[in-house]
Amino acid sequence: MRVRVILAAGIAAAVAAGAAGLAGAFSGGPSPATAAGGLGAGAAVAPANAAAFVALDSNLDSSQWQAVDSLLTKAGVLSQLQQGLQKQTGLSWDELKAALGPEVDVVVLPGGSAQQPQAVVLTQPSDSAKFDALLQKSGTKTVTAQVDGWTAVSNSQASLDAVTGATQHLAADSLYQEANAKLTGDSFAQVYANGAEAGQLASSFGAKTTTPARVVWVAGDVVATSGGLRMDGFVKGDGSGQATQPYTAALVDRIPSGALLVADFQAKQRDAAASSTNPIVASLGKLGNALGGESAVYVTPDLPFPAVTLVTQTNDPQAVLDALDQTLSSAGSAAGGSGSGTGGFSLGSILGGLKLSHEVVGNDLVVSTSQSAIDAFKGGGSKLSGDSVFTDAQSAAGMPGQTTGFVYVNLHDALPYVKSMLGGAIKSTQNIDLSSLQSALVFGTGASGDVSKFSAFLTVH
User: Using H for helix, E for strand and C for coil, what is the string for the chain?
Assistant: First the structure.
């Protein structure tokens, strides 16, 4: 129980007590639109025009919190959470437990900006006095109000008024209902964003949203299981774009076993990026345009640095090499490096003078920072398709034979590797045991109508 209280307290401190932190730095019963299991009940209070809505399970006795308990125990981070959160809140575990309601919801309102975003936290505390004490101990100025059995918290009276004065609510909005119907009922967290409203809000942060109307809504949920954390995401487009088609990844039979990171994808044309005025972005755009067919970027252990390798089925290998040369030259100029050199592409001071080697292997162009990595790709040794960490990740995540692309990280091997390379630069993590983290896998499964789906799974042993 203590573990659930600790993390639930984190939610309360970071979201409820820190409503102004979220908003300042951008920081009833269940409705018919609420997914089975009840999470997201605050949608009955949130305004229908909300740009985004996040629901978090803070019911310490739920099956999801029990699963989180188990994962945290495996991860060995309990003492750090206990110490950090107790220091942050200054409340006892019993007080924190009493301050929490069954869920904590965050409503992001439209019309905000990078300087003045608008957010409101909704909760139903089991002990209002202790919840008020939690807000006071946060040290952040907040305003609160009661609305239909919910306590609303914000750092802005105007934001609070937008919620308490709403006459149309998110739970009755057809887009929200459509998105929420895709989600799992028994989940630890759920998120929804209205494409048009969220796109306008993102643009105020400097994000380039040239075609925001193409995204109608985005929704996702996080489910804690005995084997790890799973996230499923859904994106509905307006039908104007061309859906990415699933394919069978053949390069898993060529990439060496033991890879620390693999990103496998079908190359697409990106003319807009190639025309950017930023030289690095423009060169990356040209590189993307030069790639062809199934392509992959992967990282394998090597000395003195991990080897980075690109494989692509391009019809014009020289165009890829020229684009890489331009990219490295631009990056080298930006970082004071030496650009390209004789006999290969020198990263100069960026990577200590490493050079890129390349070779055409059958239909594939292979470019790498290590000749030995190219030899391993060509060789007949163990491959990724037979790597137990990778196959276990596929099985745990339910990854199908065909995807629209995937990203895989072997955390079990990569984290110690990174830790040893960085040494004293990450002293704060020296006492944290991350050996239970096995892998992370993200993949797309294609579109059903105008709705595309992607999934992610963090495997914990």
Answer: CHHHHHHHHHHHHHHHCCHHHHHHCCCCCCCCCCCCCCCCHHHHCCECCCCEEEEEECCCCCHHHHHHHHHHHHHCCHHHHHHHHHHHHCCCHHHHHHHCCCEEEEEECCCCCCCCCCEEEEECCCCHHHHHHHHHHCCCCCEEEEECCEEEEECCHHHHHHHHCCCCEHHHCHHHHHHHCCCCCCCCEEEEEEHHHHHHHHHCCCCCCCCHHHEEEEEEEEEEECCEEEEEEEEEECCCCCCCCCEECCHHHCCECCCCEEEEEECCCCHHHHCCCCHHHHHHHHHHHHCCCEEEEEEECCCCCCEEEEEECCCCHHHHHHHHHHHHHHHHHHHCCCCCECCEEECHHHCCCCEEEEEEECCEEEEECCHHHHHHHHCCCCEHHHCHHHHHHHHHHCCCCEECCEEEECHHHHHHHHHHHHHHHHHHHCCCCCCCEEEEEEEEEEEECCEEEEEEEEEEC
- For 198, phi then psi, to 5°, come to -65, -35
In angstroms, the CA 65 to CA 61 distance is: 7
What integer pLDDT is reported at residue 322 of this predicted model?
87
Tokens of 329: 């030259």
pLDDT in tens, 406-439: 999 999 999 887 777 665 555 555 556 677 899 9
Annotated domain spans of the chain: 2-237, 247-444
| Largest interatomic CA distance in the chain | 72
pLDDT tens column, 300-309: 998 878 899 9
Confidence check: pLDDT of 169 > 50: yes
Residue type, 242: Q
* pTM of the model as a whole: 0.82
Amino acid 208 reads K
